[in-house]
Design a protein that fits this description.
The protein is mainly alpha-helical. The chain folds into three domains: about 190 residues, no CATH class; about 60 residues; about 60 residues, no CATH class. It is about 75% helix and about 0% strand. The chain contains 14 helices and no strands. The protein is rod-shaped.
Length: about 350
């Protein structure tokens, strides 16, 4: 059956950046200078600024700022830890304040970077949201994690000031993410059908139900083509094609099972099975208020009964209308002897 090829694409995409992914923040020197200036002019107690920075980082994490400026957030957290450590160890207040203000400057700059990252990598983030909605992280978790690592590598390129590099590499990442979407959709729509096709193989459907087996295979290929060729957001078309395929394979398995059982019948067993089927048709005829047609083939008899269905439905509707109009009148429980009796099959099936 189908096998995802997205690992190859993801590996190729990640290979462009792995080993050389940026680790520096473009504005780091400027942020350090601003922190030193703020520390020199600060009138706040170090404890107070540390509390403020803790809250700033907490709010940033709640807003998932780490997804758009991971280097900024990581550096801010490290500087905050250093500020807290120096304060505990009695280091000069100047050092404590510089670390604390550097963390605060990093958080402030992270919000600006988020806007740049979101605009530069908008297509990749949109595709990420779609993958999350489709639960690709559950369907193909390793592939999803690989692609999210590749997305992060592009984000840190932007943080490092290499915006053009990130923008040009986005196309490769996007292709891999879209392939993951296709593979996720295949897993969603094909998994249960492929289990049914495995049953077809066990039932030797190709031998005992060759015509319906071919129809099911054609439907299966059409489904794959629908997933691969339809617009990626046309889930209705995919669901419809999946239902058609599922029904075709289920019918194939039923026919294969019945066909295999029929080929194993003796003459006496075949007669009993024929009588059983005839009794089912007679039951249907009685339910429609029609006489059975003992001289007719199964096909002709059922065809005749199908043509009587509209008449029977119309008659049933008229009875319900009359019954509804008389609901205000007192009535006695119906006599069991007057109930319509539907005959039961007189023969037991050979094929269960």
């Amino acid at each position: 059956m189908h096998k995802p090829i997205v690992f190859l694409l993801a590996a190729a995409c990640l290979g462009q950046l792995s080993g050389c992914a940026n680790t520096q923040i473009a504005s780091d020197i400027l942020l350090q200078q601003q922190a030193e200036t703020s520390a020199a002019n600060s009138k706040l107690a170090p404890e107070k600024i540390i509390i403020e920075v803790n809250q700033d980082i907490h709010d940033a994490l709640l807003g998932q700022l780490q997804l758009y400026a991971p280097l900024h957030i990581e550096s801010a957290q490290k500087n905050l830890l250093l500020a807290e450590k120096d304060l505990r160890q009695g280091e000069p207040i100047k050092h404590v304040l510089e670390y604390a203000y550097k963390a605060q400057q990093l958080i402030s700059d992270a919000y600006k970077i988020r806007t740049l990252v979101a605009s530069t990598l908008s297509e990749a983030y949109n595709e990420r949201d779609i993958l999350l909605e489709l639960e690709a992280h559950k369907a193909l978790p390793l592939t999803f994690q690989t692609l999210m690592k590749a997305l992060r590598d592009l984000v840190v390129e932007v943080e490092g000031g290499f915006v053009e590099n990130a923008s040009s590499a986005q196309a490769t990442l996007l292709a891999s993410m879209q392939q993951l979407r296709i593979d996720t959709l295949k897993k969603r729509y094909l998994s249960d059908i492929e289990n049914l096709l495995e049953q077809s193989d066990k039932l030797e459907a190709k031998k005992f139900a060759s015509q319906t087996y071919q129809q099911a295979q054609a439907a299966y290929l059409d489904l794959i083509n629908t997933i691969e060729q339809s617009p990626l957001d046309d889930y209705k078309a995919m669901a419809t094609a999946a239902q058609i395929t599922r029904t075709a394979v289920q019918r194939t398995n039923f026919i294969a099972r019945e066909s295999a059982a029929l080929t194993a019948l003796s003459a006496e067993e075949a007669e009993r099975q024929a009588l059983y089927i005839a009794s089912l048709i007679e039951q249907l005829a009685a339910g429609l208020g029609e006489e059975s047609l003992p001289g007719q083939s199964y096909h002709d008899h059922v065809d005749f009964l199908l043509k009587q269905l509209p008449v029977a439905v119309s008659a049933s509707s008229e009875k319900k209308t009359v019954s509804t109009s008389n609901t205000s009148k007192a009535s006695k429980p119906a006599d069991k002897n007057t109930a319509i009796a539907h005959p039961v099959p007189t023969e037991k099936p050979i094929i269960q």
